[in-house]
Design goal:
It is a single chain. This protein is mainly alpha-helical. 55% of the residues lie in helices and 10% in strands. The strands form eight sheets. A three-stranded antiparallel beta sheet has the order 1-2-3. A three-stranded antiparallel beta sheet has the order 12-15-16. Helix 6 (179-196) packs parallel to helix 8. The mean pLDDT is 97.
């Protein structure tokens, strides 16, 4: 693998594709693109999608230093701040209509986290104090309205009264806490601490790492449990391979941002264990991709786009820590080749959402929807450019 190849994919495939989705009339970016590559100008605009786009352009600008990338970030920032914040009750909405009017006023901790993630990156790119101030407003929203003494809660009505968590519950369970939300609060706070090193955010990161250690990570299976009741009783025998390999490197990243050697050492059994189990249980040596998940005795062998992106970074990160484990480097290389041959859409340059075991994806899959964005694949490119450049 070479940094220049990831840079080429970022600059020639992903950035040009997303540039075309800029909504000049109503602001933000189009919220849906079908398999034909044509955007729906009247589609709902998910706030998670817009936040991730803001993060993408802000971080790409920091890496590539191209002014047009900051201009795109400015455009995303304006839409987020003009239309997605609730001035009455605080926080960001779940989604808005194409013209910025409120569509779904649900407040979800996961969604607040991605707005923090995006605004923290935008502040680092633009140095606009208003962006940093808004980030701390959301940090206080999460800490004051979205958590209790045992961890982070999930879904709320507009006024932050509790609501059921359909949006981040799957596999037939309704979870009161999820590993997924906790992971992305960690990710968001890591980006905020990287931007501003405020001690309270650092304390929050340490608290979250302890929650992973004591409540979420299963040391016997070397996996993270996924869905919980309010007391952290696991609701289902589920192994989410993509989330586990993503968690492995994001915990390492959080410890690095903290610059806390003691925490990094304490988390090492978790991050090494997650990578080990993901490689052993999920890496498909025939298709050369990472399977999706295991529920009970049933393995879902579909190759989901974001899982492949996170596994390239996750396995390369594991190899960097344990260079004697060449199998991790080989897995990262083989998954990247699988992505290039089978996941990248040859017409648009974006990624196909799901590739089945027979390598014959449904041609009708949408290229963009509220969960399909340039965050996972864009981040993979930017992480690998930096890591491979440092290694050379």
């Amino acid at each position: 693998m070479e940094a220049k190849v990831f840079k080429e994919h970022l600059e020639k495939n992903l950035i040009p594709f997303w540039n075309k989705l800029k909504d000049e009339e109503n602001g933000g970016f189009y919220g849906y693109v079908g398999s034909d590559g044509k955007p729906d100008a009247r589609s709902v605009k998910g706030v998670i999608l817009n936040s991730r786009i803001l993060w993408f352009y802000s971080t790409a600008y920091q890496l590539l230093k191209k002014p047009e990338l900051l201009e795109m970030a400015d455009h995303a920032y304006k839409f987020l701040t003009d239309f997605c914040f609730d001035s009455q009750y605080g926080g960001v909405y779940w989604s808005v209509n194409y013209d910025g009017t409120v569509c779904d006023d649900t407040k979800h901790t996961y969604n607040q986290s991605f707005a923090i993630y995006a605004l923290s990156a935008y502040y680092q790119a633009s140095r606009k104090k208003d962006a940093l101030n808004m980030t701390y407003v959301l940090y206080r929203v999460i800490e004051e309205k979205c958590r209790d003494e045992n961890g982070y809660l999930e879904a709320f009505r507009r006024d932050f009264t509790p609501s059921s968590n359909e949006k981040l519950s799957e596999n037939g369970v309704l979870a009161e806490r999820t590993m997924n939300t906790l992971l992305h609060v960690l990710e968001a706070y890591s980006e905020l601490y990287k931007a501003d090193t405020f001690y309270a955010v650092g304390d929050s990161i340490r608290w979250i790492l302890k929650l992973f250690q004591k409540k979420v990570y299963n040391p016997e299976k070397k996996i993270c449990e996924v869905f919980f009741d309010s007391d952290y009783h696991s609701l289902i025998d589920l192994e989410s391979y993509g989330h586990d390999i993503e968690t492995a490197w994001l915990i390492d990243h959080g410890c690095s941002v903290l610059d806390d050697a003691a925490y990094k050492k304490e988390m090492l059994p978790i991050t090494n264990g997650l990578a080990e189990a993901a490689y052993r249980n999920a890496f498909d040596k025939t298709q050369h991709g990472l399977n999706n998940e295991r529920e009970g005795n049933k393995i879902d062998s579909r190759k989901i786009w974001w899982v492949q992106a996170e596994s390239v970074v996750g396995f390369y990160n594991a190899y960097q820590k344990q260079p004697q484990k060449k199998e991790y480097l080989q897995a990262a290389e083989e998954i990247w080749e699988f992505i290039r041959s089978s996941v990248v859409d040859p017409d648009s340059g974006e990624w196909i959402e799901c590739v089945p075991a027979d390598n014959k994806p449904d041609p009708k899959q949408a290229l963009v929807h509220p969960w399909k964005c340039p965050y996972h694949n864009g981040r993979m490119c930017m992480e690998m450019i930096q890591r491979l450049s440092q290694a050379s």
